[in-house]
Amino acid sequence: MGTVGLYAYTIAVGFVAAGLIGSIYQLITSRQIAFELLFQHSRPAIIGVAALVMAGPAVIMRNAIRGRLVENRPGHWLALSTALSVGWSFLQGVFILSILVSARSAGFV
After folding, report:
1. How confident is the model at residue 33 (pLDDT cuts 50, 70, 90)?
2. How far apart, in whole angstroms, are the C-alpha atoms of residue 101 and residue 44?
3. What is the spatial distance between Cα 60 and Cα 93, in angstroms, rounded to a whole number?
C-alpha cells in the first residue's frame, strides 16, 4: 500500500468510527448527536461530549451538507467543513490504528 493509500485508509477508519459512534448514540438516546451537547449541564451530557469527540467528523459533515442543501450556504463553506472533517478523521484514524497496533503487538488481538 502506498503512502496515499495509507492516508486514505486512515481517514476512512476515522470517519467510519465517527459514523459508528454517532449511530450508536442515536440508537441509545433516540436523537441525533449534535454540538448542542456542549451547552448542557448534566451527567449524561458528559458521556455525550465524549461521544461527540469521536463522532465530530460525521456531525460536521451532516451539518455542512444540510447547510448547503437547506440553508443554501456558499460552496466554500462546504469545502472548508469537508477539510476540517477530513483532518479530524485522519487524527482519529491515527489514534484508533495506533491503539490496534499496540494491542496486536502486546498479544491482545
Report:
1. confident
2. 31
3. 16
Q: How many CB atoms lie within 10 A of CB 41?
A: 6
Please give the Cα distance from 93 to 96 (Å, whole number): 5
pTM, rounded to two decimals:
0.86
Taking residue 75's Cβ as centre, other Cβ atoms within 10 Å add up to 8
What residue has cell string 467528523? 57
Q: Is 21 exposed, middle or buried (0-12, 13-18, 19+ CB in 10 A)?
A: buried
Alpha-helical regions (H) of the chain: 3-29, 43-69, 75-105
Cell of 57: 467528523
